[in-house]
Structures are given as C-alpha cells and as structure tokens.
Specification:
Methylamine Dehydrogenase, Chain H, 32 strands, mainly beta
Length: 469
C-alpha cells in the first residue's frame, strides 16, 4: 500500500471520529408564473384544502434551470442526502428533565420551531404569543425552517407527491409564498441583505445549489458537487464554497462567474463550510501545509483576497470546525481526531494570541451574538448531549439532554455549516434553545444562562432563535 493510499485510509478514519461520537448519542404578495400565494397561519381544519399549492409550469421560452417546472418527488426527510452520518436513535428512555416553573412567556425574542414528523412550522414568542405559520396535509412534509437575517421573514422546505417548494413569508401572521424548486430542499441559507435564499438538495446523485431571487421570484440552479458547503459574503454579492473536500471557489451572483481560489490533489484533514471574515476581503479555510512531509500536515488560514497575504492560525490533522466571532476579534476552532479528545482553541488574528478551552468531549459549538460566550455541545458520561457555555476562561454546565432525532441527524453533524444560518442563541445572548426528547415525545426547551433548569416551550423537533428581536 502506498504512503498516499495509507494516508487516505488514515484520513477517512480520522473523519469518522465525529461519526463515532454521534453513534454514542443515537444507538427552503403577488404571484409570478412559478409561484403561488396562500394565506398564512391556516387552521388545522383548513390546511388540507386552502393551503395546498396549485403548481404551474414555467412560462414559455423561460430557461428551465431558472424557473423549474413541477416534478413528482415523494416526501423526504430533511437532510436526506446527508443523514447517514448519524445512526439509529437511542432506544433508552432518558430521565425526565427538572423544569423551571416558567414557560413560553419567558421568551424575549421569537423562536422558529420545526414540528415533529414535518407536520408544521410554528413561531413561539416573544412573550406568550404562538403563531402556527403552516400546518401540513397528510401528503406533505415540511422541513428546515430558517429565519431571515433581520428576523422578520422565514423560509422552509415543503415536499409532497406533487412536487417540491421553498416557502417564504413573514414570521408573524401574513401571506406565505411557495416557489417551485428543482429538488427537495434540505438546507436553507439567507443572504445577509435578505434578498436571496440559497438552498441545497439532492440531484443526480450530487448535492445541488439553487438560489431564489426574491426581487424577481425566480429560482435558478447554480452549481453542484459531490459535497457542497458554502458561506455568503457580508455584502451578499458572492458565495464562498468548499466542494468535494478539494476545491475552494467564489460564485459571483450578478455575473454567474466562478473563480477558483484553491484546488488540492490531496488533503489530510476535513472541514465543512469555509468562512468570510467580517471585512469581506478575507476568507477562512483549511489547506495543506507547504511541506507535506512534516507533521502536522494542514493549516487553518486567513487568506486576504486583495493582497494575497495568508496568515496561518493553526496547524493540525483531523476534522476542523471553525468560526470567527461576530465582532471579528477572535477565531474559534476545534479539531476532532479518532485517536484523541477534541482540542479547541481561541486565536486572535494578527497577534496570534491563543487560548485553549477545556472541552475534550465537544462535537458542535456556536459563538454567542455578543462574541463573549461559546455554546458547547458534547458527550456526557451518561451518553447524553451535554450543554455547556464557555465565557472568560470558565465553563458553566447545564442539564444534559437526549436530542430529538431531527436535531441529532440533520443538524449536529453539520453544525459547521448550520452555524452560519441558524442560531441557538437568543439575540441578547442571555439564553439558548434546543430540541430534546422527553418521555417519548419531542419538545423545544429554553435554557436561560442565569437559571439552573430549562423551560419547556412546547412540542417540536428543532428550534432556532430569530437573529434579531
């Protein structure tokens, strides 16, 4: 066996570290021709008739990739193309959580909830408010609800035997608009300015990218690869994509031009989504080190696209996850390796100052909006999902949970991508939300940082806070 073949096998084993960890937890008001508007917040009694979209073909002479016609696609669960990373859900009954006496009225910002079994999308709060945005018919499946950056709009995927759509509308009472999509959507990411909605789905045994332009109401298929992870530029004009663990490119939305940033024949380590820095001129990604004969072989770097300057933040091998703090002052990164505990660090770009976090069991994490805290999701000794918060060198632990199957399979293994588009944190960084199983049912919970016990908000398989109140 050649050295490169052996390294490839070692690499595959290393990237299975996160998979092994997951096994412990589990033993996308006027209608254009290709859209339909229906009344939001239907009751359960009317959802079966008035809410069913009536699809139309694309206008004559329109390119099919820009306004896809209806195709028959059977309902599919969110993340169909990627959920193999999480195996069968745990059959053990977790102990009932000790709950706070408060409930939904404690919310200070809206929470978007994915219903159990894809039957509905709901907004909870703030205060005691509840809005059922859409209740699905028996034939359909809803998934992947996502907030717009300003917290005023939502988007979610809808699939039925009649076709597939991305549904967009206000996060309170109003009208929802359904746009036909060329595939069943399993991931949704709004542009920072809220004008575009990017989505991923399976097509021809590949992961395909399509973009909804809300100004024109058209959906255009833009790209595809065997694996596809991406991040919007801060000005919403470009998309930085990591393809097939070997290519890094930028898609210009106005021209459709794709610029290759880097291409590697072989990479020891793996990562998911690359990241724009807040300045809009620099990007963050992992590349092979210059001398592949030395250990460690890979580098986490900041690449200035204007000057060409590259700053090496860290070196290592395994599965990298990384994110810049919202204020741009620090970069957090973790490194999973099958043979070692998770290593996690904070780095200050420019100065190179490094701080290590004592978080050896972490599998996913997210910066708080105030850039002062990091939510750490890990594996507890009881084989539950631990919930800890890092701040100022200290870690505070909160009650462990048994995550819902949706949270476990569709979100946690890909949190390096979801961290760009979904937030578990309240906008004021005072609390976080999550979905957990409790005595055979799925619920969403709120954990205020100043309280020891969580609050049960209601039924649901996944929940995310609005980015803004």
């Amino acid at each position: 066996m050649s050295l490169r073949a052996g390294a490839a096998r070692s690499f595959r084993s290393g990237t299975l570290a996160l998979v092994a960890v997951m096994m412990v937890l589990g033993a996308a008001c006027s209608a254009s021709d290709n859209e339909v508007v229906f009344d939001g917040n239907p009751s359960a009694e009317t959802a079966g008739s008035g809410a069913e979209p009536v699809t139309t073909s694309a206008p004559a002479g329109t390119a099919a990739e820009e306004t896809p016609t209806t195709s028959t696609i059977l309902p599919a669960a969110a993340g169909t193309a990627t959920t193999a990373i999480a195996t069968a859900a745990s059959t053990a009954s977790p102990p009932a959580p000790q709950l706070s006496d408060r409930a939904i009225e404690a919310l200070t910002a809206p929470v978007l909830v994915d219903g159990r079994f894809g039957e509905g999308v709901t907004v909870l709060g703030p205060g005691a408010e509840r809005s059922d945005l859409y209740l699905e018919t028996a034939d359909g499946f809803l998934a992947q609800p996502s907030w717009s950056p300003d917290g005023g709009m939502v988007a979610f995927s809808r699939a039925s035997s009649a076709g597939s759509w991305i549904v967009v509308g206000p996060g309170a009472d109003g009208y929802l608009t359904a746009y036909e999509t060329p595939f069943v959507v399993f991931y949704i990411h709004w542009s920072p300015d809220g004008r575009f909605v990017a989505m991923l789905g399976s097509a021809d045994s590949r992961v395909a990218l399509a973009i909804l332009d809300l100004d024109t109401g058209t959906v255009k298929r833009a790209d595809s690869a065997v694996s596809y992870y991406f991040h919007w530029s801060p000005d919403s004009t470009r998309m930085l994509a990591h393809l097939d663990n070997s290519r890094l490119q930028i898609l210009d939305l106005s021209s459709g031009e794709i610029t290759r940033i880097a291409a590697f024949d072989f990479v020891w380590s793996a990562y998911q989504a690359p990241s724009w820095m807040p300045d809009g001129r620099s990007i963050l990604y992992v590349r092979p080190a210059g001398d592949q004969s030395e250990e460690p072989p890979d580098e986490l770097v900041i690449h200035d696209l204007v000057s060409g300057r590259i700053e090496v933040l860290a070196t290592g091998a395994g599965f990298f996850a990384f994110a810049v703090s919202p204020d741009g002052a620090r970069v957090a990164y973790s490194l999973h390796n099958l043979n070692y505990s998770t290593s996690m660090y904070l780095v200050e770009p420019g100065t190179g100052q490094v701080a290590e976090l004592d978080a050896p069991n972490t599998v996913a994490w997210q910066w708080s909006p105030d850039s002062r805290k990091i939510l750490l999701l890990g594996i507890s000794e009881e084989r539950q999902l631990s919930m800890d918060v890092y701040q100022d060198g200290a870690i505070t632990s909160y009650p462990g949970i048994a995550p819902t199957e949706n949270f476990l399979r569709s979100y946690i293994p890909f949190w390096n991508q979801y961290g760009h588009s979904h937030t578990l944190w309240a906008p004021d960084s005072s609390a976080f939300v999550y979905a957990a199983s409790d005595q055979g049912d799925d619920y969403v919970f709120l954990q205020p940082l100043e309280e020891e016990r969580p609050l049960r908000l209601g039924a649901g398989s996944m929940a995310v806070f609005a980015p803004r109140n």
